[in-house]
Amino acid sequence: MSLDFKVRADHLLNHIDGTWTPGSGGQTRPNLNPADTTDVIGEFAESVAADVTAAVDAAEAAQPAWAAIGPIARATILTKASRLIEERIEDFAAAITREQGKRLGEARGEVMRGLAILEFHAGEARRMNGETTAAEEPRTIVMTFRRPLGVVGLITPWNFPLTIPIWKVAPALLSGCTAVLKPSPLTPLTAALLVQAFHDAGVPAGVLNLVQGDREAGEALVDDGRVAGISFTGSLPVGQAINRAGAGRLLRTQLELGGKNALIVLADADLDAACDAIIHGAYGQSGQRCSATSRVIVDRSVHGELLDRLAPRVRAMEIGPGDQPDADIGPVVNDERYQACLGAIENAVADGAKVIAGGDAAELGTPGYFVRPTLLDDVAWDSELAQEEVFGPVLSVITCDGYDDAMRISNSVKYGMSGTIFTQDPALMFQALQDFQAGMLHVNRPGVGAYSHLPHMGAKASQLGAPECSPDVWNFYTDLRSACIRY
User: What is the CA radius of gyration of the chain?
Assistant: First the structure.
């Protein structure tokens, strides 16, 4: 399959009130292929505040009628959208690879996970229940029920340009909310294809609006007083800024932020299985996942043996464009990530870390953002590399002395997205589930890739608000009401 599929001119635009429309400021932003920056995918709208206002106008006008049709009818439309996405899987996968850089197999996997998440949420339509409870008075029925929050803003990142918009759009629409989606300016095409699929499935005009662009559009969405909630996935500093900006008007926020995830290898671990999990968790999608394995905390007694097995596999990984069949790892998404990865490696070496594999850029003959998969040993547990998110294919190895020391190191960071342990001791498996200060926990398996029907959530600075991909998500997109009825 060629990745040179034709990009429709309307998909370069915003989608407001059911119509593809250019940004009102007339500005555009080039969308570049990170594997070859001479490949300009298109010039996408760079929205200004007036575009966000128009999108919120449309969402506000459409919301009462959309809420009135009920969740089961709304789920029927979501199911139609799922079928259309499945029919267009190769277009979605090609778009993801071309603008985000991940390998084509990973892109197809993202589409399939997005479909599973959409299927899960559509099924929740018949379970958006309240409850009946006892009354304090005779001849009285007491019950609770849910009402949609209203207009919501959905701000999504570039690392999962299809899955994350789906896991926000699906519950927003199913709940009876109307939405303004603002995707990352690095992956505008995938978002446009998604909105097109929902439009083709019969989502009415104004119910789902797309505003392309960067900071100005995002700030305008947060600042619009008619927006009742903001669901954001991205960096901790931006999430904190959103929370501060909305605090004065009690804006409801759902924030999924960064991670600095540990995989613990104890002395009795299956080292081959641990190596498989480390390769998948640290270098899959070039390490650009909030749940990526970025720290391996290994017992001193098996440290050397683990590195002897792991290092040759890292060195043997083939780096190349996402459509290269034999590539094991693709580029990082842009120059900012490229420089951040190389800078983090340089600073770690200056702090005393030792490069075991990788450690530099890869020159492949095209102007792309390729960083070799990097393995660093002798990393101090409290060093900058061990504490701060890199979001790239850069893995730290930290030595520990037993379970208690390993867990101390694991919990020493401000984040708490994912925690993983490899051990054959059943008691320590279950003890770790109690001791990890993280939201998504794994035992003897890769620390990424939670099932589509399990909550996607973090702890500490990784999460604020209701978890996504969970029935608890209705606590964000709906308000609970109580009613007492005397008869």
Answer: 23
CA-wise closest residue to 443 among 454, 458, 451, 431: 431
The predicted-structure confidence for 131-145, as pLDDT tens digits, reads as follows: 999 999 999 999 999
Q: Which amino acid appears at position 378 of this protein?
A: D
Angle at which helix 215-223 crosses helix 236-247, to 10 degrees, equals 30
At 303-342, the pLDDT tens digits run 999 999 999 999 999 999 999 999 999 999 999 999 999 9
Amino acid in the structure at residue 304:
G
Phi-psi region of 287 (alpha: psi -120 to 50; beta: other; left: phi over 0): left
Domain range summary for the chain, segments of one domain joined by +: 9-257+462-486, 262-443
DSSP state at residue 456: B
Per DSSP, the residues of 3-63 read: S-PPPPGGGGSEEETTEEE--TT--EEEEEETTEEEEEEEEEE---HHHHHHHHHHHHHHH
Distance from C-alpha of 213 to C-alpha of 45, rounded to nearest angstrom: 7
Query: What CATH class does 262-443 carry?
Result: alpha beta
Give the span between the Cα atoms of 20 and 468, in whole angstroms. Answer: 29
DSSP H/E element including 154:
strand 151-155
Catalytic residue among 124, 256, 389, 468: 256
* 318 counts as catalytic: no
- The domain defined by 9-257+462-486 folds into Aldehyde Dehydrogenase; Chain A, domain 1 (3.40.605)
Phi, then psi, of 150 in degrees rounded to 5: 130, -130
Which DSSP letter does residue 371 get?
Answer: B
The pLDDT tens digits of the residues spanning 424-441 come to 999 999 999 999 999 999
- Per-residue pLDDT tens digits for 201-244: 999 999 999 999 999 999 999 999 999 999 999 999 999 999 99
